[in-house]
Design a protein that fits this description.
The protein is mainly β. The chain has no helices and 11 strands. The strands form 2 sheets. Strands 2, 4, 5, 6, 9, 10 and 11 form a 7-stranded mixed sheet that branches. The model has no long low-confidence stretch (mean pLDDT 96).
């Protein structure tokens, strides 16, 4: 079965950085686009970023463009999200998603990111 396990979340001050990872298993990772989505407290899901099967065609939400970078390592079945210049409004539970469109085929359990001074 599809398993997506996120890690790398934490608490940082505004302007800080974090790198999220997602270990994928149970499907052919290299043949699937992947995404990151997030859910802030009391809000719905927000698509953050997507990437194509070979790392091409990265796309970003306007809210994170220029601050976040999505990447993948197909040899390690791992998806990444490098987050920089973090803002309090980036506080959310971040999910790894199978697929490059929303709604996704599957989601992980999420990793919490909290940006606060």
């Amino acid at each position: 079965q599809v398993q997506l396990v996120e890690s790398g979340g934490g608490s940082v001050q505004p302007g800080g950085s974090l790198r999220l990872s997602c270990a994928a298993s149970g499907f052919t990772f290299s043949k699937n686009g992947m995404s990151w989505v997030r859910q802030a407290p009391g809000k719905g899901f927000e698509w953050v970023s997507s990437i194509g099967i070979n790392g091409g065609a990265p796309r970003y939400a306007d809210s994170v463009q220029g601050r976040f970078i999505i990447s993948r390592d197909n040899a390690k079945n791992t998806l990444y999200l490098q987050m920089s210049s973090l803002k309090p409004e980036d506080t959310a539970l971040y999910y790894c998603a199978k697929g490059a469109t929303w709604p996704a085929d599957a989601l992980g359990l999420g990793t919490q990111v909290t940006v606060s001074s």
